[in-house]
Amino acid sequence: MSGWLAIAGLGPGDEALITPEVTAALAGASDVIGYIPYVARIAPRAGLTLHPSDNRVELDRAAHALELAAQGRRVVVVSSGDPGVFAMAAAVFEALEAGPAHWRNLDIRVLPGITAMLAASARAGAPLGHDFCAINLSDNLKPWPLIEKRLRLAAEADFAMAFYNPRSKARPEGFKRVLELLREVCGPDRPILFARAVSTPDEQLRIVPLAEARADMADMRTMVIVGSSMTRIIDGPARPILYTPRSVTVSA
Amino acid sequence: MSGWLAIAGLGPGDEALITPEVTAALAGASDVIGYIPYVARIAPRAGLTLHPSDNRVELDRAAHALELAAQGRRVVVVSSGDPGVFAMAAAVFEALEAGPAHWRNLDIRVLPGITAMLAASARAGAPLGHDFCAINLSDNLKPWPLIEKRLRLAAEADFAMAFYNPRSKARPEGFKRVLELLREVCGPDRPILFARAVSTPDEQLRIVPLAEARADMADMRTMVIVGSSMTRIIDGPARPILYTPRSVTVSA
After folding, report:
1. A60-109, pLDDT tens digit by residue?
2. What is the CATH architecture assignment of B4-114?
3. Fewer CB within 10 Å, N side or C side of chain A?
4. What is the ipTM of this complex?
């Protein structure tokens, strides 16, 4: 039997957000590979080997998955959210490009998932309902000045902005600088959403104006979304609804 | 029994890409409302009323859904892809904000789905594996100069770009101008993906350099993704893989 490799998205946490396509791939797998907390979401069963690995070893993990598939194993690499958004799909293709030629004959599929920004957006309303951008705020893999440049241009373009990896223990100052920059270019009243652990029992949503945003409102489990100039809040009896209308009537 | 309103994403077409959360909402619905081809994806059953409506009546459709929920019905508004990305969620909140105060007491949930750009990205590889933006190229609801401004700023920020609604019969010239602008700011070699009817039997993928891109490569069922300056192609025995590495090592 020939091996295959599926790079699958587990969504933000709730089992009800995992697509049947991903569930079927997991049911047919011999090996599941991924970052420890994501592999922990997979139920053990006979015939399935789980390969949890630590953060920041993405290329090693990718090469391991490719090698197992080349040996005839049925391998699923798991990411949270969508594997194509700041996750394992790009890492697998980087390893593929750098690896032995026979890997290019492998059956490799990417199975999309519900990415964190869309899960967070859904919970809050529809802040990404008009043009938007997604930026990874980690400077592990890119220079910090490029992050600031992109933030300024995105604000000038009046995109809503979704931020992945806003803050980590290794980079306590970066997100503080991001908030200062955003206050400068977007003004103090622009709404910002902190959506933590969306779709899990730990879920917490908070919407504040940029003037009140503090770096410690985000941690590694937080998705951050900043509205465009058009983004609005509807106050309701339960929680506020954050949304960006479909229309722009102002001049460009 | 009190009514509720769910705004649900059906994903790009394949049933295996519909989340169990959406399937459960549809199973509990008394009414399904949406654009004709999306409502056509819902199997009729006893106790379920289907309300298909035409394009460009989104606000009327949203108000209808809110009114039915206010009457105690269990209503699902269906979008393709994700309802929060250029789809019905923003329209429902626009109608909510403009409507009677009692609507604000309704139980309204947005149920995310696999949006077209992530389904297309998964099929092609991982072109959105680094920072990216999503732009609706329709000028029905925004002035054309704003589209051009955003394209130029997005290119300057070196985002990969995903384009929704690239081309329609009503706007045959717009996408041609977009391609000219992109060739000017991104150069002739930048890869562009045309992903048509992803995850359906009509699926077609084509990757060409911008120099070879023509407006008629896209239609209303096509998702278009333009790579960043870092986006690469791996040639394989089957089809080419398009991906954007996670790292940026050039200076900003």
Report:
1. 999 999 999 999 999 999 999 999 999 999 999 999 999 999 999 999 99
2. 3-Layer(aba) Sandwich (3.40)
3. N
4. 0.96
Query: How far away is chain B from the Cα of A28, in angstroms, using its nearest Cα?
Result: 15
Whether A161 has its CB under 8 Å from any CB of chain B: the answer is: no
A201 contact B CB<8A = no
Domain with CATH 3.40.1010.10 in chain B: 4-114
Instruction: Name, in order, each residue with C-beta under 8 angstroms of A103's C-beta and a sequence gap of 6 or more.
Output: A66, A70, A96
C-beta of residue A130 within 8 angstroms of C-beta of residue A245: yes
- Tell me, yes or no, if B81 comes closer than 8 A to chain A by beta carbon: no
B65 in Cβ contact with B94 (< 8 Å): no
B244 Cβ under 8 Å from any chain A Cβ: yes
Domain with CATH 3.30.950.10 in chain B: 117-243
Q: Which of B77, B86, B94 to mutate to test the interface with A (most CBs of A within 10 A)?
A: B94
3-state secondary structure of B17: helix
What is the distance in angstroms between the Cα of B51 and the nearest Cα belonging to chain A?
22
B111 touching A (Cβ < 8 Å): yes
B252·A18 Cβ contact <8 A: no
> Could you give the dihedral angle defined by the CA atoms of residues B109, B110, B112 and B117, in that order, rounded to the nearest 10 degrees?
180
Fold of A117-243: 3.30.950
- Could you tell me which of B126, B38, B228, B195 has the C-alpha nearest to residue A112? B126
Task: Tell me how far CA of residue A105 lies from CA of A2, A3, A97, B239, in angstroms.
Answer: 11, 11, 12, 11
Q: Which residue of A has its CA nearest to B122?
A: A110
CB contact set of B233 (below 8 Å; sequence gap of 6+): B191, B207, B240, B241, B242
Q: Cα separation of B189 and A4, whole Å?
A: 32
- pLDDT of res. A232: 97
- The answer to whether the CB atoms of B118 and A90 lie below 8 A apart is no
B154 CB within 8 Å of a chain A CB: yes
Radius of gyration of chain A (CA): 20
